[in-house]
Amino acid sequence: MMRKCKRCLRQSPIILVLTCVIFLVLNHFARKGLVTNDQDQFPKQIQHFSGNGNLSTSGAHNIRCSELEISTESLYVVNCTAVLQGEAGAIKRSQLLKTPHKAVTHNDSYYTDAIQNCENFIRSRKYITFALSKREEQVSIAYSVVIHQRADQFERLLRTIYMPQNIYCVHIDNKSSIDFKTAVRNIAFCFPNVFIAGRLENVVYSSWSRVQADLNCMEELLARHLTWKYFINLCGMDFPIKTNSEIVHQLQDLKGRNSLESEVATEKKRLRWKFHFNVVNGKMVKTNVIKKPISTVASIFSGSAYIVVSRSFVEHILKDPIVKQLIEWSKDTYSPDEFIWATLQRMPSVPGSEPSHPKYDVSDMRSMARLVKWKYLEGDVTKGKPYPLCTGSHRRSVCIYGAGDLNWILQQHHLFANKFDADVDPIALQCLEQYIRQKTLLGCST
What we know:
This protein is an alpha/beta fold. The chain has a domain at 76-105 and 371-413 and 415-446. The protein contains 17 helices and 15 strands. The chain has helices at 2-11, 14-31, 80-84, 88-98, 108-114, 118-124, 134-138, 151-161, 178-189, 209-224, 244-254, 267-274, 311-317, 321-330, 340-344, 406-409, 426-440, and strands spanning 47-49, 55-57, 141-147, 167-172, 194-196, 230-235, 238-240, 259-264, 275-280, 283-290, 301-310, 371-372, 393-395, 398-400, 416-418. The strands form five sheets. Strands 5-4-3-6-11-8 form a six-stranded mixed sheet, with helices on both faces. A three-stranded mixed sheet has the order 7-15-12. α1 packs antiparallel against α2 and α5 crosses α9. 38% of the residues are buried.
């Protein structure tokens, strides 16, 4: 540097001397980190989870918003715009396309081999690694994702909901295959704000283990990240129907309240906690032992496993002695995930709760947590049915959505929908994923 300036002094007049001086000053500031090249950096700083509850700021990135579009990944040549608008011809074409072609998916072992370089994986899979707005940057969301199979579908879900300011706890069913566990751990390893739950449960359908998996994540999410505002729990067959920006907006509108299903229970559902149940060979078995009612809780309400709750709600239920009594009492009941959150939401001491009076009942269609189509409630909406017929298939009486459901889905206020399966209708996932990404990138600039 000095040799260059000495040549300037020998060969040039005063103007060149001044140029050299300015060059030296700028070089000094650059070394101190006071001058940056704005063209090489995003305007938003990236917040990364550091593992101790704090967030640190990342360095520069060299990716453009246009490179984050995922339409080029399309496996099926279909007019997604027409499908999303509900055009019958486009939907019929999508049904014809999916029939002869099984969805192209990666098996679990693929992620063991593919993720040799995290930076390449993040870039090739087009993860969004910077906050897209100041509002989103300031509102961190904590996610619990409980999964047991299909690493490819989990990774697709993670990519769609991933933002660097959020934090993600992934609970893997302890009974899952070694290949699946390895694949998910490899994916999580690439992100500082994604971690595998420290305590893994053997999850049994309709048993307490499903609730315990979320509780395990709740504890770790509180300990690892000090600033998240709301908690949302997911499973592997969920998919967002709102962008992160829209989710943040709806969470802010709650103003500290919670949003989840909570209704007066029918007599049929009361049988779930009237008798003692045991797990036998991986299934719930009812005994003839009648449970003693819990004296510290006024009423048990019916609801869903899916919740959107504030940080204060989570902090309270993990330390309150009355809640702990309810937790212990619920451990030998059938499908406690479908009444415990609903009951907590009607207890006056719980932050963001609602009064127990029936006028405050909230159905799954009125809460924002999850959009689910139940087979026995589908039909002609002009004749009183709550939603139209499923265009995919059913599993345990729940609709696995088809492309023909997307137009109806996107008219709803919910944050997520359940269920999606690429093996049932890959075009439904392809079009929804493209829609969410395109909407997410509106206004994105680097």
